[in-house]
Design brief:
heterodimer, A: mainly alpha, B: mainly alpha, 6 helices
Amino acid sequence: MTITPGHWLALSAALFTIGLIGVLVRRNLIIIFMAIELMLNAGNIALVTFSNLHQQVSGQVFALFVIAVAAAEAAVGLGIVLALYRNKETVNIDEITVMRW
Amino acid sequence: MGTAIAFYILAALILTGGVLVITAKSAVHSVVWLVGTIIAIAALYVVQHAEFLAVIQVLVYAGGIVVLYLFVVMLVNLKRPAEAIVHPQRRERTGLLLGGALLAQFAAVAFYAFNSPQVGTAATYSARGNVEAVARALYVEYLVPFEVASVLLLVAMVGAIVLARRDA
């Protein structure tokens, strides 16, 4: 019952897929942002796994940068959500069709 | 053996948490499940000997980002259900199918390319410990990206303030 890097990567892949399905299927913009956070976390798990596999801390440093970018993304994205809600009274992406074909 | 037990328990927690995040009816429940998932991922980092990253994960995600999400969920006070209207061109089954295809590809790569046991997980990369190793890499090797990340955070902060201002 040894845990290979494949196990960690499979977990990362499963979490990424859950996030992707959330982005594709849900219509509430806030929940879509949370699904994006799940995908970023899945990427971090893969980075830490490779960091362990190659015995180098670079992967963990990259994961820190990903967390910083996730924080920036959450701040700007939720600002956009608030601006949209103020203008259109909705967070449903199927109602926000102004910039669609 | 201990690693295997910890891995399977944490993997179960993370995956059920993730599924509940994207299936929860109300956004508040989603946020709560997201906290659980993030804390389980932090525990996973501890198992993988990335202790500093685990601490940062709890501080930044569970302490900062999730609170931001909760604020927005509370501020956005909807009069009708958030997902009442469905666009006629929406194809949810295609989304699920694409997700399944991606998972199959990822799983194939993970199991065929990386199925040898990990070499020396127990040993940290330097005798000094994880925090010092990460700090050395972050402030020596990756100093320029670190500074760029600080500029990115500053720009994001200004952008968020401009976007959320009432008389923008």
